Amino acid sequence: MSVMTIAGRALMMSAILSAPAMSVAQVPPGPRVPAVPVVPAVPMAPELPAMIELPDPSDLPMLMAIPDMPDLANVAVIAKSAADAIRAGHAFSFAISDEQRSRDDEARQREDEARQRADEARQRAEEEKQREAERRQRVDEYYQRGQESLERKAWARAADSFTRVIDSTTSTRVDAALYWKAYALDKLNQQADALAAVQDLLKRFPQSRWQSDAKALELQVRQNAGQAPRPENESDEELKLLAIQGLQHSDPEQAVPMLEKILQGTASPQLKNRALFVLAQSNSPRARTVLTAIAKGGSNPDVQRRAIRYLGTNGTIENRAILAEIYASSSDVDLKREILRSFMVSGDKTRMFSLASSEKTPELRQEAVRQLGPMGAREELWQLYQKESTPEIKRQILQSLFVSGDATRLISIANSEQDAQLRRRAVQHLGTMGRASTGAALVEIYAKEKEADIKRSVINALFTQDNADSLVAIARKETDPAMKREMVQKLSLMTKSKVAMDYLMEILNK
Q1: For the residues of 435-470, what is the DSSP string, one character each?
Q2: More confident residue, 56 or 191
Q3: CATH number, domain 135-222
């Protein structure tokens, strides 16, 4: 042992001996070691069964060769591609579904637009027909004003009215207007202009039934050319009027030849009308023969139409038969329309219904249906409606049912008609027929109706009836805000109705 080692040990021992002594009490106790739990006895393992004797490997059949495993290096790529394809397939499926819905929506929209265009075209056609009818009516009014001016001897005003008829492009009375304009100008001592009007008539209307009257008037105008008006002519016509009125109350039979001459001459419309009236009032065979001949076209169209009116006014069986004969033999639509009106005046419901069923000309058939209304032909109109397929004729039947006061049939149509336009028209008519007979029915129609436009028509109909009770009743049940708003708007205008005002206060207090 080296000296250095011995010295180190000596120093260590010296340090230990020099340290202060520590009593046993000063040594802190150590932590308590827990007792080791008793390990339970491990059960004995069961005795293993004897080994099964395996067959000799040489006796086993040869196994098939296991194919080589595929290269799995691209499995992740393949799986991702498959997942992407599946996701794309779902997206494509959704895209196809959305695209199909879009196509369906577009198809429905196109159908709606086509239906709307068809409705608008039909509406425009109806409006054009209405405008055409209004134009014809205005022209007829000008003609009638001209006739009235002639009776009042307001020659200048008469000439102006007939000029308006001549200038019209829709009038069927231009030849008649030319005749009466020439007549009025002759009375104004304007023979040159009168002759021009007569010659225009003769040239433009060679087949006109005014030809013979125009030739007679031309002769009269030429005789009056360059002469001042003669008051005695006017007084002579007034005397003739007085004489005719006297004969009307005495012996019309003696005056028939003179009356016939007046009707065939160039007398004023007033004088001709008076002569025709005397003929129509007479029961003599000669007078009836002359009147029938004129009604069949033995005079100018103005006189003929007036003769037809007189036959209708005196609606005997014989006169009705004459009217039917003239109707069947004529092709003049205006004349036939006049005969239909005479059937109405005479009360010939049977012939009117027959023509309303069988007439081939639409405007005449429509006129026959129109005339059945004031005749009160409810059953006939209902029969026509059930067989009719033309919407325009059906609309006219609805109008005639309204005129005849048949609320029951209108209610039935408003409930069952497939055409929404016709249902709406029926509802509109019901609105003007009084709430006592139609108010409850309108409420029921509103409850069953699906078309918004027709529901609005019901609201308007109840408003027209001032039927606040029914409006409030349907407003309480209505869940559509737009419809309810429309009802409230109507009720707000019914300021004299306590029911309406109470309901408005009820809304405000909510």
Answers
A1: HHHHHHHHHHHHHH---HHHHHHHHHHHHHTT-HHH
A2: 191
A3: 1.25.40.10
